[in-house]
Specification:
By secondary structure, the protein is of the alpha/beta class. The chain folds into 2 domains: 4-30 and 295-403, Aspartate Aminotransferase, domain 1; 39-292, Aspartate Aminotransferase, domain 2. Helices cover 39% and strands 17% of the residues. The chain contains 14 helices and 17 strands. The strands form 5 sheets. A 7-stranded mixed beta sheet has the order 4-10-9-8-7-5-6, sandwiched between helices. It is globular and about 70 Å long. 46% of the residues are buried. The structure holds 4'-deoxy-4'-aminopyridoxal-5'-phosphate. Residues 92-94, 121, 123-124, 169, 173, 198, 200-201, 221, 362 line the site of 4'-deoxy-4'-aminopyridoxal-5'-phosphate. 4'-deoxy-4'-aminopyridoxal-5'-phosphate (PMP) binds next to helix 4.
């Protein structure tokens, strides 16, 4: 059982008011809030051992290096990667995807095929389109049904010997659908294709085991899971990371530099050019510690309760339609009420202290599928409560009355 009232004490931001009303934060799929335990780690870093890492001869540099590398081990352990050098620090999910897409530029050729899903965030579409433009490979799309579920039989029909890569999110940010990535990975491997899973929305709710999944690349952002912005990780199987060329050149990623020839550092440094987000990396580890101290099982159970409660209460509102009714979904509810524009609902809710997201959620193809400009999206985390959902429902009813 999760002690939500106790947990809420860890999040100072939950005590503030917005427009004179207590904040109700339901925009967690965009970014999560930060517990004091993680804020303390950030303050401690800048107060006590802020220094550039690796190769520093002085104590501060050593302390910062140790903490940063310790955090890499925590990330390795959390995702159950075989080696710590399979964990590459990135600036976030978008950076991780671009790193891999760039690497495949030298591995793909005309006639090769890559597969994306209809449920993707723009950051898991555009880099692959750019890759296809550069290489002449073609992009195929796994279609979805009205529930917002991928149609696996169509996926199987797309796979063939030319398929080199499949990229799919674990959970859709716009609809909350949990995709059957185990099956997707297995089928892709059967034709020799590699799979990249965008875990931006899954990592805040579940604990992926990259070895059990046998996934080739897995990416996520710390800011969706109680950590700071500007840091994330790319997991890649050692063999793949060795095959991919470096993404950016600069300091830290080299072995030897001369004007005639530069040789690159080994993993993970080959992909970590320049001074990284040192404090962010350390705080990412602290965020994982925090979430694991609550337990991902308890988090998932509680968030499922919030999802079920929120869904049933929302459906009592006349004219309200939920987009994304997959059997397997997480605590994201995307909806519209009649013909009311989502932006208008979001603006009135904000006046009542309630933060939701409105718009296309960086997933325009999904909005096109439903022939809508966007939705209102309420996304819950383990620090939200049923009482907050009640207040939100009352406020939403008021907003609908004002706008009808
Ligand atoms: N993929 C998905 C499914 C997302 O939800 C997001 C963030 N909204 C991203 C990718 C991009 O993450 P970031 O902006 O942290 O790079």
């Amino acid at each position: 059982m999760l002690d939500v009232q106790n947990i809420r004490q860890d999040f100072p931001i939950l005590n503030r008011t917005v427009n004179g009303k207590p904040l109700i934060y339901f925009d967690n799929a965009a970014t999560s809030q930060t517990p004091q335990q993680v804020i303390d780690v950030i303050v401690d870093y800048y107060s006590n051992y802020n220094a550039n890492i690796h190769r520093g001869v002085h104590s501060l540099s050593q302390e910062a290096t140790d903490a940063y590398e310790q955090s890499r081990l925590k990330i390795q352990n959390h995702f159950n990667a075989k080696h710590s050098h399979e964990i590459i620090y990135t600036a976030g999910t978008t950076h991780g995807i671009n790193l891999v897409a760039n690497g495949f530029s030298s591995l793909l050729k005309k006639g090769d095929e890559v597969i994306v899903s209809a449920l993707e965030h723009h950051s898991n579409i555009v880099p692959w389109q750019m890759l296809c433009e550069r290489t002449g490979a073609s992009l195929k799309v796994i279609p979805m049904n009205d529930h917002g579920e991928l149609i696996l039989s169509e996926y199987e029909a797309l796979l063939n010997d030319n398929t080199k890569l499949v990229f799919v999110n674990h959970i859709s940010n716009a609809l909350g659908t949990i995709n059957p990535i185990e099956k997707i990975i297995e089928k892709a491997h059967a034709v020799g294709a590699a799979v990249l899973v965008d875990g931006a929305q899954s990592c805040p709710h579940i604990k992926p085991d990259v070895q059990a999944l046998d996934v080739d690349f897995y990416v996520c952002s710390a800011h969706k899971m109680c950590g700071p912005t500007g840091v994330g990780m790319l997991y890649g199987k050692e063999a793949w990371l060795n095959k991919l060329p470096p993404y950016q050149g600069g300091g830290e990623m080299i072995a030897e530099v001369s004007f005639e020839k530069t040789t690159y550092a080994g993993l993970p440094h080959k992909f970590e050019a320049g001074t990284p987000n040192i404090c962010g990396g350390i705080a990412f580890g602290a965020a994982l510690d925090y979430m694991n101290s609550i337990s991902f099982d308890a988090i998932a159970n509680y968030e499922n309760e919030l999802l079920d409660y929120g869904t049933s209460e929302l459906l009592k509102i006349e004219g309200l339609k939920i987009y994304g009714t997959a059997k397997e979904k997480t605590s994201v509810i995307s909806f519209n009420v009649g013909n009311i524009h989502p932006y208008d609902i979001g603006t009135i809710l904000d006046k009542m202290g309630i933060a939701v997201r409105t718009g296309h959620h960086c997933a325009q193809p999904i909005m096109d599928f439903y022939k809508i400009p966007g939705t209102v999206r309420a996304s819950f985390m383990f620090y939200n409560t049923k009482e907050e959902i009640d207040t939100f429902i009352t406020a939403l009813k008021k907003a609908v009355m004002m706008l009808s």
